Amino acid sequence: MSRRGESVPFAFIADADRFRSNVTPPPPARRSFREIAGSALVGLTIVAGLVGSVVLGLPALSENQSPAHDQPAAAEGR
Q1: Is the pLDDT of residue 70 over 60?
Q2: Distance between alpha carbon 31 and the CA centroid of its chain, in Å?
Q3: How far apart are CA 69 and CA 75, in angstroms?
Q4: Are 8 and 14 in contact (CB under 8 A)?
Q5: pTM of the model as a whole
Q6: How does pLDDT run across 27-64, given as a tens digit for each residue?
Q7: Which residue ranges run through the membrane (predicted)?
Q8: Rounded to 10 degrees, what is the CA torsion of 74, 76, 77, 78?
Q9: Does some domain include residue 76?
Q10: In a domain, 24, yes or no
Q11: Count of the separate structural domains present in the chain
Q12: Cα dihedral sign, 58-59-64-69
């Protein structure tokens, strides 16, 4: 039986690592003004929501709160 000079049974699989395509992908399409404005609006909405939640949540996180109503008014005479 004659032996071939291949190091692996399928030489084309071993050569696939060295293969380079001469086909280049098309350049990415330019985004329209509407797409840019839409993504900016989505980003601003997310940032505004985060800032609003922090602004509204800060009073609840402060430690120097005095409870407004500890006891009901009927319990003051006791």
Answers
A1: no
A2: 20
A3: 11
A4: yes
A5: 0.49
A6: 889 999 999 999 999 999 999 999 999 999 888 888 77
A7: 40-61
A8: 100
A9: no
A10: no
A11: 1
A12: negative
User: d(Cα 44, Cα 63) in Å, to the nearest integer?
Assistant: 31
- For residue 43, the enclosing domain spans 31-57
As a whole number of angstroms, the distance between CA 49 and CA 76 comes to 42
Which residues in 47-57 are b (16+ Cβ under 10 Å) and which e? eeeeeeeeeee
For residue 10, give the amino acid letter.
F
Give the residue carrying structure tokens 């098309």. 26
- The answer to whether residue 50 is domain-embedded is yes
3-state secondary structure of 5: coil
How large is the C-alpha radius of gyration of the chain? 35
Q: Annotate 6-73 with DSSP letters as a single string.
A: -SSS-HHHHHGGG----PPPPPPPPPPHHHHHHHHHHHHHHHHHHHHHHHHHHHHH-S----S-SS-G
